[in-house]
Specification:
The chain is of the alpha/beta class. The protein is 25% helix and 26% strand. Helix 2 links the parallel strand 2 and strand 3.
Length: 302
């Protein structure tokens, strides 16, 4: 079965100031998403599912989804604030989405096989898709636990010069399996070049800029939906009454690893990553894509 590409596109891009998923970056009006789907098709993916919000569904389908008609199977799922397990409800006053794990959960009815997860506004590079496609094609003999994967990038290659970023900071063992992943927010270089970030417990600390980080490019099987349901239910029982609590993909994966329910291979890639978090990031992305086109990695018009 060909893998599915699951695209997290429900965010409005609050720091960027608009629907950056629809912002043209290529010379012929291509969005970052256009390049992502193009790379996925080249790597052998058979379907793309966009996780979006209902309030901009029609605009998204017209501006983005329609581009891929006839090229790959396209489907949609909606991240809804009230899409919760039985017995839970939205706390009064909450308007903030429940996080990336909840976004994946939204696709549980439209994804039936192996799938990769990406952010809509991140450019991951062709080699990253080839790398995860090879991983999907590998045979696993150990059935005692689930086997997942993640494309890792050095932290220093994922920072923005225009503001702080959030990253999943990873640790691996000697075989390349993920041993720990921690969501760290507000990561940026200070005046002397030191990289600092804030852990979820509020502590501020230094982070080595060579450590691998998760850019939310994951490889999963359908079993992950069941595991998300279990984890998200526990999360809601503990933190569901808070106004801004979020359930993150790295936190779910970390919990599965610690309880020996799954392992996660950190995949190396030669691809360059770049993303648009702030408006001032756009010129860098546009220039980087132009260089890749000049090098022959992409056609001038997709």
């Amino acid at each position: 079965m060909k893998p599915t590409l699951l695209v997290l596109a429900a965010g409005m891009g609050s720091r960027y100031g608009g629907l950056k998923q629809m912002d043209p970056m290529g010379p012929s009006g291509e969005t970052v998403l256009d390049y992502s789907v193009f790379d996925a098709i080249r790597a052998g993916f058979g379907k793309v599912v966009f996780i979006i919000r209902e309030d901009f569904a029609e605009a998204f389908k017209t501006s983005v989804g329609a581009r891929f008609a006839g090229k790959i199977e396209v489907d949609y799922a909606f991240q809804k604030l009230d899409d919760l397990p039985a017995g839970f409800s939205i706390p009064e006053g909450r308007t903030k989405p429940w996080g990336t794990a909840h976004a994946i959960r939204a696709a549980r009815h439209v994804v039936t096989g192996p799938f990769a997860v990406i952010n809509a506004d991140d450019f991951y590079g062709a080699d990253a898709y080839q790398s995860i496609a090879r991983w999907f094609a590998a045979a696993f003999t150990d059935s005692a636990k689930d086997h997942y994967s993640m494309v890792g990038y050095p932290l220093r290659n994922t920072l923005s010069e225009h503001g702080s970023v959030n990253r999943g900071i990873c640790q691996t063992d000697a075989t390349g399996l993920l041993t720990d992943v921690e969501e760290v927010v507000d990561i940026a270089r200070d005046e002397d070049g030191t990289v600092l970030g804030t852990a979820l417990d509020g502590s501020r600390r230094e982070i080595a800029d060579i450590c691998p980080v998760s850019m939310n490019f994951w490889g999963f099987t359908v079993n992950f939906f069941t595991q998300i349901e279990e984890h998200f239910t526990t999360f809601l029982a503990e933190k569901g009454g808070e106004q801004k609590s979020e359930c993150y993909i790295p936190t779910v994966v970390d919990d599965l690893i610690r309880h020996e329910k799954a392992d996660c291979r950190v995949l190396e890639t030669t691809a360059s990553w770049f993303g648009v978090t702030y408006p001032d990031d756009k010129p860098h992305v546009v220039a980087s894509i132009a260089k890749l086109i000049e090098a022959g990695d992409y056609p001038a018009a997709l």
